[in-house]
Protein 1
Amino acid sequence: MTRLKHIKQNEVKSLPNVFHSKQQNLAQLVRAYFANNNPFTVELGCGNGEYSNTLALKYPDRNFVGIDRAGARIWAASQNSLKLNINNSAFVLTYVEKLEEVFPGPLIDEIWLPFPNPLPHRGKMKKILTNPFFLRMYNKLLVSGGKIHLKTDDDFLYEYTLSVIEKNELKILYSTNNLLNETSAPEEALIKTRFEQDHVTAGKTIKYIAFTF
């Protein structure tokens, strides 16, 4: 571990807009941070929080929560938010599997999955964030009509998610295997992270699916 990464991991839990799974009453702490009844949008595997922070600036009347298991990434997301004086985004250092500790009921309006690890190997299928286990959890935590957004450059993950949606009779709101060629795509889907830009520069096409239960 580099010295800088070690410093970030030691500092991250002390940042004012960061919470973590070892805190007691985690859900109450997160709600108290926002101190309002505005709708929640959650970014899973948020990395540096580019989606959460960009959307938070665009929609000041909504709350945004980024989830990631890596302390250094959450540190960067938090710092970006603080530098921009964003008051409606916060970050939780935890695993996606523990999302119900953050939202113990149907409180989420939208879930974003920007470029999750596709994990195509059979032994790791249960880790894919659009597999049936996770979808059942999302269904419990989303409000009625709540949406899930997936962005990926991976053909396997895109096709796999479409098959899961069909098998579980979910409703596709928008789907494309080449997002940047679309003229009718939702504006939020066109937010481009540094990670996505790397894929585009490498000649990969971006896939996008929005769906609901």
Protein 2
Amino acid sequence: MKTEFDLLWKKFLDGDDSSLDCLYDKYIQILFRFGLQFTADRELVKDCIQDLFVKLYETRTQHQHVNNIVVYLRIGLKNRIMNSLKSEQLHLKYISTLELSPVDEIAADHQLEWLEEDQHNKNRIDTILKLLTPQQKKVVQYRFIEDLKLEEISTLMNINYQSAQNILQRAIGKAKKHFFIKK
């Protein structure tokens, strides 16, 4: 069954430029949140998303065999961010002093309001996440927060399907055991 993203992707490959705009509009927020998992630099994430879509447009004919556009975009964004961070680290080696930009007070205020509103939920989630290994945390996030299927998770994390399933089951088991004992 083809998803809305798959249909937009096919239209884009067939020459409909507006379908790439639709993909961008529909997926930008999800990609942005996904990118923030790898860096807190919001501008870097925005730049990498923009670069990803420009590259997609420029290399349209090379993407004929993409099975899942959502996973493809996530992997592409992750790779761009990682490459940018590696490049940035190399540059920082040779810079003796860093100029820090002033904190954007409006963004900081907005973030504070959001944190206050969600503190209760965050505490519960933190309690669960402390029980999990880093790999289990990623699988849980991809499955329950990003709503990815296990096939997509295994592709994104470069592990086989059974491993993704086992990791998820162990994470759920840890959370259940902890909360069952606590009650």
Protein 3
Amino acid sequence: MKPDPESSALRDPYGARLAALRLLAGRDFAAADLQLRLEARGFAAPAVRTVVEELVASGALNEARFAENYVTWHAGRGQGPVRIAADLRRLGIPGPLIEAAIAAGPDWASLAGRVCQGKFGARVPESWPEKARRMRFLQYRGFSADHIRAATGADPDTD
């Protein structure tokens, strides 16, 4: 049974704050994502906006920290900066925070090499179709053309 949206508990910022703190106890969130989750739980939009603003002001909700943690986690899973940046934009993180988090991330070219080697082994590709297959894989993972060239040693212009 869905709660009554006119319920005073759902319009109360205190209840929304408690729910937000419970969510933040588990992991970091982007402000827009936290706001959507609270509204999906039935809290009134004005109460949610107030709570999110208070949490940002107090430092409990920090989008720069969220972006850095997101980059670290997803880079550890073998995803590249292009894909991670697109995900962060989708979550509503501002561009300058995304750029800073990506710049503070790992050495993307060496990560691309490790990801490629983990998937295909240490054997150097001998044919162009095999090089193209590796390049497509790294592109899907979200690596830029420079990172792909560094990881595969393949340059479509000269090969």
Protein 4
Amino acid sequence: MKESMRLKDGKVVVSDEKNIIAIYPYRDADGAKVNNKTKNLFFLVCSVSGIDKLKLSKSGIVAI
């Protein structure tokens, strides 16, 4: 984003020590792209109400 924006309650901001990585559900930051220098991946999966945690666990996703 080129400009700041005020987020509504309940929005998730993912960051590292220096930068914002993603603002869910708006967008991922440019620095979150996977490229030929990528060494590690971390997947953040956000569920929605009504999805059974057992179904998520069968998909390999750890439900918290």
